Amino acid sequence: MKEAELIRQLQKLRKIQPRKDWIVFTKTKILGDAPRVSPFVFFKPALAGALALGLLAGLFFISQNALPGELLYPIKKLSEKSQRIFVSIEKRPEFQLKLTEKRLAELEVIVEKNDTKKLSSALSELKTSKLYADKEVSKIQNKPETIKEIASIIEKNNTKEKQILSSLGLQVEEEKEPAGKLVAEHLIRDLEDSSLTEKQKELLEEAKEYFDEGDYSSALSKALEASQIK
Fold this sequence. Notes:
mainly alpha
């Protein structure tokens, strides 16, 4: 066979492809049985995601009892921020005031435990929460029933704060535009435009006097009392 003919025959052999069943048979003989793939391997990413979500939900739940200065407290604050997303704009003042109520409860626990290491953090968290509450309350519209609900929460928070700070030998820090001032203004204005009993008129005058003196907490208390008389 001539050299050129031999080269042509070799080129033809290179183009020949073995059957797939022969390849599988040969590999099995050389390497042994092929490993079986578990069908559950395809579910591992989904299971991992579900596990991560479960752990995150568990941390959110456990963190609800965390106090300022503790490891899980930032997670507690994060869960509160996530809840705020689902709160309507008109309900946000109440929501933020409820958070201030939480900060007061945390501070109260720390004071009762005499945990001085966490005291500074708790006071700082309370101050920040009050500032956010003031900002939200400043946006409220003149809706009497809504204002009364907010006023009740503010009065409760003010009373609690005075009690706690008094036990520490501290006074409530004066704010430039406290929520109590803003709500007291709404209540006083609403009372002035209403038909009042003699008792309501008396309480209204006291509320206005306290307001002019800058005692917005007392002004709010008196105005709220007047507005609740049927």
